[in-house]
Amino acid sequence: MVFFRPALRYDPASPAPQDTAALAVLDKRRGRSYNPGAMEKLHFGDVTVERCVESEGPSFYPGFIFPDWDEDAFAAERRDWIDPLYFDEESGRLLMSLHSYIIRTPHHTILVDTCVGNDKHRPDTKPWHMRQTPFLEDLTAMGVAPEEVDFVMCTHLHVDHIGWNTKLEDGRWTPTFPNAKYLFHETEYAYWEKADMGDGGSGMTRRDAFEDSVLPVMEAGQAVLVEGDHAIDDTLQLEPSPGHSPGHVFLNLETEHGSAVFTGDVMHHPVQIAYPEWNSRFCYDPPQSQRTREAIVERTADTSTLVLAAHFAMPVAGHIVSNPGGNGDRCKFQGVSQQGGRLLTES
Ligand SMILES: [Zn+2]
Fold it and tell me: Is 155 left (phi over 0), alpha (psi -120 to 50) or beta?
């Protein structure tokens, strides 16, 4: 079989076309749709995990987001396991997603990361600027009204993880989830509170993102600054995972019926499971980010722990397997829908 390798371009003018037009084109071409919440509900005994999608589709060019990538190595992984799920050959872009996870325990409803949000002034990232999506309506349709959220947990405070923390109401940014405690890691908060972002910063580091999506939560008295190993309840515990940002944290779910780890942006795309040395261009401390990524790959490989990242496209939930071909291959990501939709962890 002849493998056609498209030209993969670096296009700084359009780094993140995760907009509805791109999605519509992709949907039409593939004859499939990206339904919010299309990830099967994961059951861990009486704890469930779903996702609410803000947008999903062709996103960054690999050479843009991974400055140290190797085109031939990427092509080999594509042939082996990445295409067509996690790469869009036609556009030459990675397939990625912006979504929140909804965790329901017998005691609490927890939202993990809150995407870009509506009405936010983000002129340097065009698809995110003054964005309008039905995220909140979708969340409500999934049975989670805003007032029912008990905790909002941000793995870190980059612009695409804090947006729905607030919404515009009568010209003011107010917390979207009126009864929630918002958990911010104290190291992460302290960094962004003091960060000198000069003219306002750009991309992931915008000062105005902190001011419109984090500070109003603090001023409303709904923010809780937590330490790295903070336990939300008896099944959910934070874990420091610095590198991508100064105070990035994982969220570990541990139950008698299985475990999962919400990995935030320590990995942006499944290819980083095969190549954990490929940092994203948005990493604060690339060597530390690599060490953190290598550690989570090693720890979860060949276990039943589900890996739930912040930007993987469908299938989103999966396991890491090492050397699957027995040929010294690199690790791979196996989405659970590739296993017939049933999970070892399903009750
Ligand atoms: Zn992100």
Answer: alpha
What is the count of structural domains for the chain?
A: 1
**278 CA to centre of ligand 1 in angstroms:** 16
Ligand 1 centre to CA of 156 (Å) is 9
Domain assignment present for 11: no
Q: Distance from the CA of 221 to the center of ligand 1, in angstroms?
A: 25
Indicate the SS3 state at residue 218. Answer: helix
> Of 31, 15, 101, which Cα lies nearest the Cα of 64?
15
107-159 pLDDT, tens digit per residue, is 999 999 999 999 999 988 888 999 999 999 999 999 999 999 999 999 999 99
CATH of the domain at 330: 3.60.15.10
- CA of 51 from ligand 1 middle (Å) equals 15
pLDDT digits (tens, 9 = 90+) for 206-232: 678 999 999 999 999 999 999 989 999
Contact of 289 with 247, CB cutoff 8 Å: no
Rounded CA gap, 290 and 131, in Å?
32
Cα-to-centroid distance, 35 and ligand 1 (Å)? 20
CA of 292 to the centre of ligand 1 (A): 16
Among candidate residues 93, 247, 69, the one with its CA nearest the CA of residue 265: 247
DSSP 91-117: TTEEEEEEEEEEEE-SS-EEEE---S-
Within a domain: 24: no
Handedness of CA 133, 139, 141, 146 (dihedral sign): negative
Taking the centre of ligand 1 as the mean of its atom positions, its distance from the CA of residue 78, in whole angstroms, is 22
Cα 187 to averaged position of ligand 1 atoms, centre (Å): 18
| Cα 3 to averaged position of ligand 1 atoms, centre (Å) | 31
